[in-house]
Amino acid sequence: MKTKFKLQATASAGLESIVARELRNLGYQETVKIDDRSRVFFEGEASDIALANIWLRTADRVKIVVGEFTAKTFDELFNEVFALDWPEFLPLGSTFPVAKAKSVKSQLHNEPTIQSITKKAIVKRLQQYYHRPENLPLMEKGPEYSIEVLVHKDQVTVLLDTSGESLFKRGYRTEHGGAPIKENLAAAIILLTNWPANPLRPFVDPTCGSGTFCIEAAMIAMNIAPGLNRSFAFEKWPWFMTSVNLSELKDRARASEKRDLPLQIQGSDIDGKMVEIARHNTVAAGLENVVQYKQMRLQDFRSDALDGVIVSNPPYGERLDDEAKVRQLYREMGETFRPLKTWSKYIITADENFELAYENKATKKRKLYNGALKSYLYQYFGERVKN
Ligand code: SAH
């Protein structure tokens, strides 16, 4: 059986370098590479696949690269897919949807045909390998292996998803109310701030909504692995689970948590219903003794503490009639935060003119996608605290 795999950690556009950094910190510095299409690859064994799924905070999925080749005709596609090591991955009886095909700037561009040719080639290979009759379909009743084919400038990548549901689903957010930010984007934003370097400083989200930033911040500070309370596609694969001791990997992750830090993480929101939802999710994450919540307008935020960090995802003007209200909110935000000279502030919004209304130019600005919505992380670095 295969023991070493080429792997891809997928992420939303703009987060690749953060995913790569996470992988380096997890110990994969030797093999981590970002290619010219911003794809993040690394290598490892089955246990590394499990670890990456358990630990990556900012990725969407971990996928096995089953094969890479050039194909300009459907015959080439069929033959190359046929030649890949399918019996290594797919025991007889497996369910193996070719769930996704994507083509960009390639001679093969009809995605449904790419999908069906790929499927046919895998079926034929397995029929031969397992000595099944070619005129009968393979029974697909067993565990699922979800396959993807991506064609880019005639270069084909065939992938097998190991995660199942996207890794942003940690399992704690059972309710979200309005417009939540995805957990993996929230984690990425926190990793972009200077807070994790010294997480004993105050952390405040004054527009906390369902509590995502506060919960992710606590998990980062306490070294709580994001994937401990969910399941992964690989758990259904017999050949995989015989080579990995998942409960031991999870026990080890739990043993490395730092539960007793005196953290100061605070979330507030103008909407009492949202505060309740945030509390509910924080209980689900087991962090109710770590994060403090209250109902409050951000305009009322005051603090004498030094060197804190604010992370906020305020409303942005979706409709024209919201425009004026949002401008006023940003202006008041600027007024409220201005006295907090030593605090660093990180605001993510889809509004391109945020700085104008906030009346302060960001130290740094970074483009990020909040789902499909192009957004910016406006970063304001606090003045250094003299000691
Ligand atoms: N990041 C959050 C979503 C934030 S949406 C999550 O992951 O769930 C924006 C939030 O700002 C909403 O919950 C809204 O109630 C809140 N809000 C709007 N105006 C506010 C104000 N003046 N003060 C505090 N919160 C406000």
- The CATH class label of the largest domain is Alpha Beta
CATH topology assignment of the largest domain? Rossmann fold
Give the overall pLDDT as a whole number.
96
Order of helices and strands: EHEEHEHHEHEEHEHHHEHEEHEHEE
Over the alpha carbons, how many angstroms does the gyration radius reach? 24 Å
Helix content: 25-40%
Going by CATH, the homologous superfamily of the largest domain would be Vaccinia Virus protein VP39
**Oligomer class:** single chain
Distance between the termini: 59 Å
CATH arch. level architecture of the largest domain? 3-Layer(aba) Sandwich
Query: Which overall shape is indicated by the principal axes computed on the Cα atoms?
Result: elongated
Number of strands: 14
Question: How would you classify the helix and strand content by structural class?
Answer: alpha/beta
| Contiguous helical run count | 12
How many discrete domains? 2
Work out the strand percent. Answer: 15-25%
Spatial arrangement of strands, main beta sheet: 2-3-1-4-7-6-5
Q: How does the major sheet shape up?
A: 7 strands, mixed
Poorly predicted parts? none
Q: Could you say which small molecules are bound to this protein?
A: S-adenosyl-L-homocysteine
Describe the structure in your own words.
The chain contains 12 helices and 14 strands. The chain is an alpha/beta fold and 387 residues long. It has 2 domains: 5-161, VC0802-like (2-Layer Sandwich); 183-223 and 258-380, Rossmann fold (3-Layer(aba) Sandwich). The strands form 2 sheets. The protein has a 7-stranded mixed beta sheet. It has a 7-stranded mixed beta sheet with strand order 10-9-8-11-12-14-13, covered by helices on one side. A hairpin with a 2-residue loop joins strand 6 (147-152) and strand 7. The longest helix has 19 residues, at 111-129. The protein is elongated and about 75 Å long. The termini are far apart. 41% of the residues are buried. Residues 176, 178-181, 206-207, 209-210, 212-213, 269-271, 274, 297-299, 313-315, 329 line the site of S-adenosyl-L-homocysteine.
